[in-house]
Amino acid sequence: MEAYSLVEVNQYIKQVIAANFLDSIWVQAEISQIKESRGAYYLELVEKKEHSDEVIASTGAVIWYKSVLFIRNKLKDLAHQILKEGIHIQCKVKVEFHEKYGLKFSIEDIDPTFTFGQMEIKRQQTIERLSKEELLHRNQQITLPRVFQKIAVISSSKAAGLEDFMDQLHNNRYGYAFHTVLFESSVQGQNLEREMIQALDLASKQDVDSIVIIRGGGSKLDLSGFDSYLLAKHAALCSKPILTGIGHETDQTIIELVVNSPLKTPTAVANLIIDHNLLFEHSVLNLNERINGQMEKKMIRYHQEVMDLMISIRHHSRSITERNRLQLQNKIDGVRHKALSLCQTWMNKIEMRSEQIRINDPSNILKKGFSLTMQQGKPVKSIVELNKAEPLVTVFADGKVESEIKMVFKQCN
Amino acid sequence: MKKTEKQELTFSEAYEELSKIALILENNELPLESLSEKVTRATFLADWCKKKLREIETHVENILDEKTKNSD
Q1: In CATH, which superfamily holds the domain spanning A6-110?
Q2: Phi, psi dihedral angles at A156 (to 5 degrees)
Q3: Closest Cβ opposite residue A356 in set B26, B61, B67
Q4: Closest partner residue to B39 among A325, A336, A357, by Cβ?
């Protein structure tokens, strides 16, 4: 039985492959793993079954330092976006077989248009899905708070944009105070989706009036994490209005399509928040002014009305009391007059009686020189009544005289 | 039964008594012995009545003055 050494076999395979892959070919595959080592990239290329994670083909690939330089020079900043796990690439490879290392694709060139086309297709699919699920405008329907006060900030504490945002927000020239709580999350890389969803869920349960997502500005790093369907769904269904300052110049990311207020930079978010509060303050001041104006007008009118009423009441009450006082005075005068005239009448009667008594008081008559003649203790008014046998008593003012009757002369008229 | 001021003499009683004395004097029906007493009594009654009337007058004035003041 003939047997070959491994080297012989591998050399044979090498010859077969070299004969069949004379020229480099263009291959479409997904990067499932990628790592950099001493200037070269080592990748695992895979192909998955459609709509599934099941790998149906896989091959190791390498980008040698020379090619890395070429690709970086060609793709510039885009290189970062393409050379990462999960990205579909179309690359020019030299299929090689090495006796010791086995089959290896040596990547010489990358066509970015394919990747972006793929990304765009995926992006459009995501947008369509979000639209179908009515998630695109969900967060936009939440009205912004009248005043921003408590703000949950989702960002990485290492992000430069976070500092810009905080500085712009807290050092605003109107002196508005804000309460901010930071929820840590990666703003790039593989962990972005998971961490940001977690941060969103946490932040939305807090007593905050809005959530702000801030990405470090400046460097144009990878934004594709923000195109995640799951993240967009969480953002859309978030109970708080979300503002983003992701900091980019190219197309909007998916998350920015669903959030309440997408802004270009962290500074712009801070400015929007401050302007929003300023607008509120203006409206309050304006209302206050209007209320004051109306109040003043009303107060003047009420004051005048009250004054008029007071004058009228005073006038009427005075005339009423005056009338009553006059009536009462008349009554009193009447009573006084009657009472006094009654007293006077009686006084007159008493005076009359006193006068009568004075006149008829015999002692007064006696003082005038008249005298009273009495017999047997009774005054004698006529000679007819006389008893000649009895003595007469003559009463004077100052004494009595008793005398005998000698003769009685009767006066003849 | 002569009443004095203290024995709750009323004005009409006083006046009646005064009138009676006046009538008696006018008719000269009085024994001379009681004359002085009657006149004294009459004088007392007249003075008492006058005093009473003056009191009433003053009282009336005072009360009505007060009323006038209070109604202001």
Answers
A1: Nucleic acid-binding proteins (2.40.50.140)
A2: -100, 135
A3: B26
A4: A357
